[in-house]
Every structure is written in structure tokens, then in C-alpha cells.
């Protein structure tokens, strides 16, 4: 083997081709609606964690569970990074017609990139929240919300935080 890159070899590095059965693939006996995705603060210092909240509503007629997934996308990076990266998920039971507000923390180390060592870099990021991966095509409807945030400061090794 001469080419050790992961490009085209794992779902994280497929480029424009989506995997046949991506993480979170499946059907449900009800429908869910996502709303009110809030990122706090929208501008982070380099070593800070991001607080995320989202409201999940069961709009169907049956009690059910949903796996809420958060994905992170780097808008610019000094090194190759995945199209998006799973940074949090939670299985939540929601009664029919009810809603719940979920809170997550996206840690600074989850934004780190490998460049001879784990480094944090400034820049713009997009966070996706929903019942599937961003851009996934499914027969069962599922929403994916997105919001942007930015990180300020000078790039530094993760160990410097």
C-alpha cells in the first residue's frame, strides 16, 4: 500500500460521495421536529467550550425515541479534516405531542486538528443538530438544523489550554 490517506476509505473522508447506510440511518414510527438551535457564546475564545441547546418535539401519534446527533464542520482548516465530525449524541424518549429541550457541551478538544500534534485553530465552524447526518437523504423525514460560530485567538497546541 502506497497511499496512506483515509480519503475515500471511511465515511468521515468520503468527499462528495455519501455512504450507503450512514450513522443514524433508520426509520421511526413517528415524526420529530427540531427547532430553536442555540449556540452560546457565538464567538468563543480559543480554549472555551461551546454550549448547545435544541428543542425536540414529537409531532407524531406515538411515543418514541430519537437519537439526537451533533456534527461539527470546519469551514477552513490548515490541514485536511473530515467533511463533518460527530461530536455528541443522545437517545431521548419523547411522548407523542410532547417536546423536550436538550443541552450539550462541545468541548474545545473536539475542535482540535492533527498537525504533528493536536492543535486548536481560530476560524468559522458550523454545528449541525438533528436526527441524521447533514445532507443525508432518507425515506423517513428528519430535520437537521445548523448554526455558525467562530473561534478567536492565536492557534495553539491543545496541551496549552
From TrEMBL:
Q: Which domain of life is it from?
A: Eukaryota
Q: Which range is the signal sequence, renumbered to this chain?
A: none
| Record's catalysed reaction(s) | Hydrolysis of terminal, non-reducing beta-D-glucosyl residues with release of beta-D-glucose
Segments forming domain Fibronectin type III-like:
66-133
Matches recorded under Pfam families: Fn3-like
What EC number(s) does its UniProt record assign?
Answer: 3.2.1.21
Q: By what name is this protein known? A: beta-glucosidase
Q: Which organism is it from?
A: Dasyornis broadbenti
One GO biological process term is: carbohydrate metabolic process
Record's keyword terms, sorted: Hydrolase
Record family assignment: Belongs to the glycosyl hydrolase 3 family.
InterPro entries named among the record's database cross-references: Cellulose_deg_GH3, Fn3-like, Glyco_hydro_3_C_sf, Ig-like_fold
The UniProt GO MF terms for this protein read:
beta-glucosidase activity
